[in-house]
Amino acid sequence: MYRKDYTGQLEIPNFYLPFGGKLRSDNRWVILSKQIPWKTIEQRYALNFKGSKTGNPAKTARVALGSLIIKERLGTSDIETVEQIRENPYLQYFLGFYEYDDEKPFDSSSMTHFRKRFNAQTLAEINELIVANAVENNSNKKDDSCDDSDTPNSQNDKPNDNDKPSNKGKMIVDATCTPADIAYPTDLNLLNTAREKTEAIIDTLHKPLIGKKDKPRTYRNKARKDYLAVAKKKTSGKNKIRKAVGKQLGYLGRNLRSIDKMASEGLLMHLNKRKYRDLLVISELYRQQQWMYDNRQQRIDDRIVSISQPHIRPIVRGKARNKVEFGAKISVSMVDGFSYVDKIGWDNYNESTDLIPQIEKYRQRFGFYPESVH
């Protein structure tokens, strides 16, 4: 259930501090709170709860989006973000609170739900709104600073209907990768993690059959020793790693065949959504790894590098420090200090194809082409 509750930006003097004093108007969070069109965001955010009139009331759009902004700007974890909000009155003002409260505003697990309610398209639209609002405020300040007593030159300032808008501004364009929070993936580690998860799945499926039927063998202790024999070494040759990968593929394939047999007996109903999802991902991971092992290849289309986040893809960047990064690839344009995310995707793509569309978007935003593109 969602209750629309937007009463406008709270003025600083009205924010109650139990220990006295008042907030500074030049604080970065106070300034940022005035640049974000919370009312428009609130209206769009409410569409996520259309038709829902039962259950506990959800947090407001300002709390949800504001918490995500705080997390990204401070570079903290979900738990640390909640603690920062609890301790900092400026962050509570940024989230629209009316007074300081030293209790946790929400549980850190709520951050996961906040992220799900803002997809890439919604965030791109919000970014456009924030920048448009900031540009409008800057232009209003410039207009107010102009001296009205000055009389313009009648010849120079006469508008000409035949004149087209001239090119203005500089546009900086770049493509980059936003690194995902995953361990650096190796074939051996991925297969070991997949094997451990299939062992847990077999335990869950066999639970109702305890005392009635023998559990399928998994050889988990032997498989663990084979993995550690290579993983614990500082350096291992290619042949040893390939041999270890082959062993883990054997253990994992055996587990998957056991799960298929148990599934034919109607035991999949005992899996929760998380484990069933893991099973689907692991099945595809096994197919990819087995193909690369058989064909002695290191590349395959739509390669899975994380079981918990199977949408993440390796992005080849060619940098000296990190030749490959893992995360979403984005094309960003910057104008007058404001950045626009023009494209975001999990699959690698050629960013040179985005140049002309980005220039056209510049014209749509401002009504003229840039003077130069960098």
3D structure, described in words:
This protein has 374 residues and is α+β, with helices and mostly antiparallel strands. Strands 1, 2, 3, 4 and 5 form a five-stranded mixed β-sheet that branches. A hairpin with a 2-residue loop joins strand 3 and strand 4. The model is unreliable at 151-156 (pLDDT under 50). The chain is built from twelve helices and five strands. Helix content is 46%, strand content 9%.
Feature tags:
374 residues
Runs in which pLDDT lies below 50 for 5 or more consecutive residues are: 151-156
Radius of gyration: 28 Å
Mean pLDDT: 84
Order of SSEs:
HHHHHHHEHHHHEEEHE
The helix content is 40-55%
Task: Assign the structural class, choosing from mainly alpha, mainly beta, alpha/beta, alpha+beta, or little secondary structure.
Answer: alpha+beta
Q: What's the count of strands?
A: 5
Percent strand: 5-15%
- Write down the overall geometry: globular
How many DSSP H or I helices?
A: 12
N-end to C-end Cα span: 47 Å
Largest sheet: 5 strands, mixed
